[in-house]
Predict the structure.
Amino acid sequence: MNLFFAKKKEKATPKDAIINLRETLSMLEKREAHIQSKIDAEVKTARANLTSNKRAALLALKRKKMYEGQLEKMSGTRITIEGQAMSIEAANVNLETMKAMERGAAAMKLIHKDLNIDKVDQTMEDIRDQMDLANEVSDAISQPQLFGPEMDEDELLAELDELEQEELDKQLLNSGRVPVSLPKLPAASVASGSGRVPVRSPVAVRSPVAVRSPPVAEHVDEEDDELAELRESMGMAM
């Protein structure tokens, strides 16, 4: 046995203190129930000896009063212990809350250790630059001139008109009629309602060789001869 060094007392944790107080309350409740049973027994004894033995009845009432005094003190002790247990529980909740908040603050410090507003701004600027670059690349890819030179729509329409005129000339020559070239007319305006609507000039009728219309002949033979000469001059076989 060590007589020189006293055993160091262990620190009571809030959990242990609350458990101890709850056990004490349970003991007090059992003690109160036991005392209450004795009070009921003394009352029963007093009633039994009320007429036959008044002295025994008085002693029973005295013991009843003593038990009631103990019961009252025990009730006050219970109230005190319950209040202490509730205070410890509330303090323990506050302690755990503060510990959790401290751990949260430490975690935030660790996160923000290598992070500041300048880095955030730079990161956002880099993101915007990359998004702008992605949009420019997408626009460049979607441009049609990558698949060939840009074409003028007016030139395409003019070429289309020429093809239509050539097709018309072929049809007229095959049918035996002489194609006539019409002069180009400037754009005119015609009245339409309350305003004037521009009208596109008709497409000039082109012919491989400009030929005047022959004069009206009185005989069919003369027309046939002229038509034969026209075909010969155009290099067409009879």
Remarks:
- Residues 185-218 have pLDDT under 50 and may be disordered.
- Residues 49 and 231 are 162 Å apart (CA to CA).
